[in-house]
Amino acid sequence: MARCYPQTGSFFQGLGITAVHCTCTDSAGVSNSCVFNVNVLAFVPTNIPPLATCPADVNVVSFQGNIGSFAKFDNAVCSDSEDPVGSIIASCDPQTDSFFQGLGNTAVNCTCTDSAGASNSFTNIPPVATCPADVTVVSVQGNIGIVANFSNAVCSDSEDPAGSIIASCDRQTGSFFQGLGITAVTCTCTDSAGASNSCFKVRGPSYLHELETGASPARPMA
């Protein structure tokens, strides 16, 4: 049996090449040997980027004139397998309390970077809610209101499959709209992380009786 030095299972200190000598000796004392190398390479750690978890979408109401509004939101949460809990703070662009100009959706990108420089980010683009056109209906006699039928809003989202998001409206089609005037119907499309709101109006003009003079038939008011 060959005898090697260092033996198998030995600890090879440091980096680089170490020669292992193995010798075979027969019963007559004649021996022969061979040499092979063990090369210890530098350890290169595999860094797993941190996980970024963003808060839900935020809806704010614009200042008068639809110029926009300030928005406050919670920071994203960072978690990492190599760094202590709470040691990584997310950086968001735009930051909370920023002024968001005009109307519509603005994507906020939050990034988590660990101690090794690996980063991950999360940007949720809210779904788009496309509402039907405004509906105008004529009240029943006595101006008590009318039942209004309308199509549902259509939701589309860049992250979710087509048709997977169904709009939810605070007044359903076939509802009775009491009295006269404009009633706002709000329809909401919600994806896995947030929502986008839109609305349309149901207009209920009055119902006029035919005048005794016969000069004017029943018609809706403008």
| Helix/strand order | EEEEEEEEEEEEEEEEEE
CATH topology of the largest domain: Immunoglobulin-like
| Count of helical regions | 0
Measured by DSSP, the beta-strand proportion falls in 35-45%
Coarse shape: elongated
CATH architectural arrangement of the largest domain = Sandwich
- The percent range for helix content is under 10%
Overall average residue pLDDT:
81
Level-1 CATH class name of the largest domain = Mainly Beta
Multimerization state: single chain
β-strand number: 18
Give the helix/strand class: mainly beta
Low-confidence stretches: 208-222
In this structure, how is the largest beta sheet organized?
A: 4 strands, mixed
Structural domains: how many: 3
Protein name: HYR domain-containing protein
Organism: Stichopus japonicus
Describe the structure.
The chain has 222 residues and is mostly beta strands. It has 3 domains: 3-40, no CATH class; 51-122, no CATH class; 128-204, Immunoglobulin-like. It has strands spanning 3-5, 16-25, 31-40, 51-53, 68-71, 77-79, 91-93, 98-101, 109-113, 119-122, 128-130, 135-136, 145-148, 154-156, 168-169, 175-178, 181-190, 195-204. The strands form 7 sheets. The protein has a 4-stranded mixed β-sheet with strand order 12-18-17-15, with no helix packed on it.
Key attributes of the depicted protein:
single chain; 222 residues; mainly beta; Immunoglobulin-like; 3 domains; elongated; HYR domain-containing protein
Quickly describe the structure:
Helices cover 0% and strands 39% of the residues. It is mostly beta strands. The radius of gyration is 36 Å and the shape is elongated.
